[in-house]
User: Fold this.
Amino acid sequence: MTEEKRRSSSGLWMTIIFLTLFLLFSVAVNFGVIIVSMIRGVGNSSANDPSFEEQHIYGSGRAKVVRISLDGIIMRKVSGGGLLGGQIDMIDSLKKQIKAAENDDLVCAIILDVNSPGGAVTPTDELYRALLDFKESRNDRKIVTFVRDMAASGAYWLSVSGDWIIAEPTAIVGSIGVIMQTYNWKELSEKIGITDMTIKSGKNKDILNPFKDVSPEQVAIIQEVINDSFDYFKNVVKMGRNMDEDTLSPLADGRVFTSKTAMSNGLIDEIGYWDDAVEYTKRMLGVKNIKIVSYRRHRGFGSIFSGVNLNGLPGVFQSSTPRLMSVWSPGI
Assistant:
């Protein structure tokens, strides 16, 4: 073997050994972090979920408040990504954060930090139920909703879980409604010679088939589904905002409102900024100081190779299957 080949072979083995040791070290570190988290919990909040760690944001004191951010489309991720891990499920992550706050005896309140146009109906309702569970777990627990840019449709649905809603002066609020959208390609398919072959058990099994005209009977069926979901949404708002049907109905036609108009119509309680939300939380809890924390997921070695895409407009429309949505998405 020549000297050059020996050097090449030696370099290759050194690289392999280095990478192997680095991988083992990373695994050991992450395993140690998990064990420590399981023992300590996250301020007693993640004893049942060591994948979260607690991050201090603001203030001090015995009254602990968890800031939970709702940012982007409310949609459950089901597609995988990356070499060593799948994409994070936004809904699962938020539900676990709410549950972690519920399990922490020191947590008195949640500040729900909202910037979202809404999303899918069922995941929205799951999060809403989780927030109510937090409040109902103890009589002294409260939720303050802080709206940054937007709390529309499903995001407003979640916002009304709050005992007090504060929105920034330039925020958009409302869009109370439910929608289902799809495409119809019948005329185009006839022009380019594409035909559909569907074998079904009943005449409405392929309702909203994009290659067929939608009959008035089928429109009525879908409209009934939309109406039932819309009534459910309205009842959530009526309960959360203490409104009657006559007051809410004129506001629940899908339109959005500025913060000023939303406040004058009783959809929010105050116009202000983050500091105002913090100060109101103190007053609501009857304390001078609060300690605000957030939860973040542990970042392990595998996350370097994971595809992480929490939300975003394209993700909503990856599937061609029509679905019930409570989302404000003009132009899409």
Remarks:
- Residues 33-47, 79-85, 301-319 have pLDDT under 50 and may be disordered.
- The two ends are 66 Å apart (CA to CA).
- Residues 49-177+244-299+319-327 form a domain with the 2-enoyl-CoA Hydratase; Chain A, domain 1 fold (CATH 3.90.226.10).
- The longest helix spans residues 3-40.
